[in-house]
Design brief:
Rossmann fold, 7-stranded mixed sheet, binds adenosine-5'-triphosphate
Length: 506
């Protein structure tokens, strides 16, 4: 039985053809992965199915009935549930309060069923804003499943999940399909595709580049996604994409003195205890240090201490001998400290402002004339060059950030921080989250190049394979403490780190 049939679906924004005559058939009882480069049209497709966007042309049917939702409510009523890239929960309310907003009957019994059948238990009494992103994502998924949808659409749900949570989610997708429903899963992680999908469709530039694909190997899918053979991509990508082979960075001698030093940093938790406890970390010029760990073990706070969003209760942050513990963000930028926050949408950029302004946030002074007027023309022409260099797919430098696809917003934030001159230290949280295969390759290359040019680099990532391929040393965050550094190239490093991540001692 066909769950969802899409025919000739198009969506244009001015001159941008986000979707261009897309046909797609999703069978009931299957998990159907949708793949494609950043800006290929995947989210637009999800929005059309979820009723949050009206297509310019085309038609859909759901389980044999004509389906043209004009708003999300109509999609929900038809049995379609969505999990979008951006969170839809009210962060000041508790999980239970958020779920009660759905007004479904027998909430307690439904929650119990979800916990039993899919292992999806959620902390009902905690305030959403206090939860790590991975747990928030789980609540989003529970919210979507509470109505027992016939079709579940997930737009890149696994980016913020740890390995155990990804496993649980993929199992959930499988079970929904086995129960007769259908799942559309948008992901960049080819490892996940191989594990869970029955069929895949690849979009490229708003068009279908491959449909009904059942050969789900990376070798088959990557060329369709990026429009060129896969063999010129670096093997280091395997870790990020969740493919099985793990490539580890060769050991290098680091002989310079540290340029970034965190000394005895502690951040207390409002209710008692610590978010960060006596953290020491040194990074030398040219060195790449990774922070592994299940999300919510202090990584967010560590990045916030570096960006200045959080002043620690104790300890110091020193960069090239300068005490930056309490410095303003502008001072940090001037000192050469670039920070890519994990929540690019809320902390990394200003969605209402244009791309050029976002690229030069914190350095707008360089484009001020007579201290007041902003020379937008000069800024936009500089921005055009950056957009080209970083392969950012955007209508132009004057387009608002909100018109860019998620992955392209991430590229803007990275490009801005990598462009600091001098770049003494780069601290990047989840730098490849949401990026397509080609962009991951480019970003990992740029991070390595920044280190080769002398920057000290700190990378926080939930992908252990990515950290091992990129980093010289890896520390593990667990309950606010950092472990001893483990040399990525040391024998058994992977298993040792994986153990430390779940709190076992080395
Ligand atoms: N509101 C908008 N105004 C103008 N252009 C838009 C708007 N929303 C999306 N676009 C454009 O539509 C195209 C498709 O975007 P979409 O978000 O669907 O891509 P995607 O495949 O989901 O990418 P990603 O993997 O980065 O999330 C992009 O070129 C994007 O810039």
């Amino acid at each position: 039985m066909i769950a969802l049939e899409i025919a000739g679906l198009s969506k244009t924004y001015g001159s941008v053809r986000a979707l261009d005559g897309v046909d797609l058939t999703v069978e009931a009882g299957t998990v159907h992965c949708v793949l494609g480069e950043n800006g290929a049209g995947k989210s637009t497709l999800c929005h059309a199915v979820g009723g949050s966007l009206t297509p310019s042309a085309g038609s859909m049917s759901l389980f044999g009935t004509r389906y043209a939702p004009r708003r999300p409510k109509e999609a929900i009523a038809a049995g379609v549930a969505m999990v979008h890239q951006h969170f839809s929960l009210v962060s000041t309310l508790t999980v239970a309060e958020n779920l009660r907003l759905l007004r479904v009957g027998g909430l307690a019994a439904r929650l119990e069923r979800l916990a039993d059948r899919y292992g999806l238990a959620v902390p009902l009494d905690e305030t959403v804003g206090d939860l790590p992103l991975g747990v928030r994502q789980r609540v989003e998924i529970v919210k979507a499943l509470l109505r027992e949808p016939r079709l579940l659409v997930l737009d890149e749900p696994t980016g913020v999940l740890g390995p155990a949570e990804v496993d649980a989610l993929l199992t959930t997708c499988r079970r929904i399909a086995d129960d007769g429903g259908a799942v559309v899963l948008v992901t960049h992680k080819l490892g996940e595709v191989a594990r869970v999908a029955d069929v895949a469709t690849v979009l490229r530039g708003g068009k279908v580049a491959g449909s009904g694909l059942t050969d789900l190997s990376a070798d088959n899918l990557i060329p369709l996604m990026i429009g060129r053979p896969a063999d010129d991509l670096a093997p280091v990508l395997a870790g990020t994409l969740g493919l099985s082979e793990v490539v580890v960075r060769d050991e290098r001698a680091i002989d310079q003195a540290p340029v970034l030093s965190l000394r005895d940093i502690s951040v207390t938790r409002p209710g008692g205890g610590y978010l960060l406890e006596n953290v020491d970390l040194d990074i030398a010029p040219g060195e790449i240090v990774g922070v592994a760990g299940v999300e919510g073990n202090g990584q967010t706070e560590l990045i916030h201490v570096l960006s200045g969003a959080l002043v620690p209760d104790a300890g110091t942050v020193e960069l090239a001998g300068e005490d930056l513990t309490r410095a303003t963000p502008a001072r940090r930028t001037a000192a050469g400290l670039g920070v890519v926050p994990e929540d690019r949408h809320h902390e990394g950029c200003v969605p209402e402002l244009d791309v050029a302004t976002n690229l030069y946030l914190g350095r707008l002074g360089e484009y001020r004339r007579f201290h007041v007027l902003l020379d937008k023309k000069a800024m936009r022409s500089a921005a055009t060059a950056v957009i080209e260099k970083h392969g950012i797919s955007a209508p132009g430098p004057a387009a608002p950030m909100s018109a860019l696809s998620g992955g392209n917003q991430q590229k803007v934030v990275l490009a801005r921080e990598l462009a600091l001159d001098p770049l003494v230290c780069l601290a990047a949280a989840q730098p490849t989250r949401g990026l397509d295969v080609g962009a991951v390759d480019a970003v990992l290359g740029r991070i390595r190049a920044a280190a080769a040019a002398g920057a000290a680099v700190l990378v926080v990532s939930s992908e252990l394979g990515e950290l091992l391929a990129l980093c010289d040393r890896v520390v593990v965050a667990y309950r606010g403490k950092l472990s001893e550094a483990i040399v990525a190239a040391a024998p058994g490093a992977h298993d040792k780190i994986a153990h430390l991540m779940i709190g076992a001692t080395a």
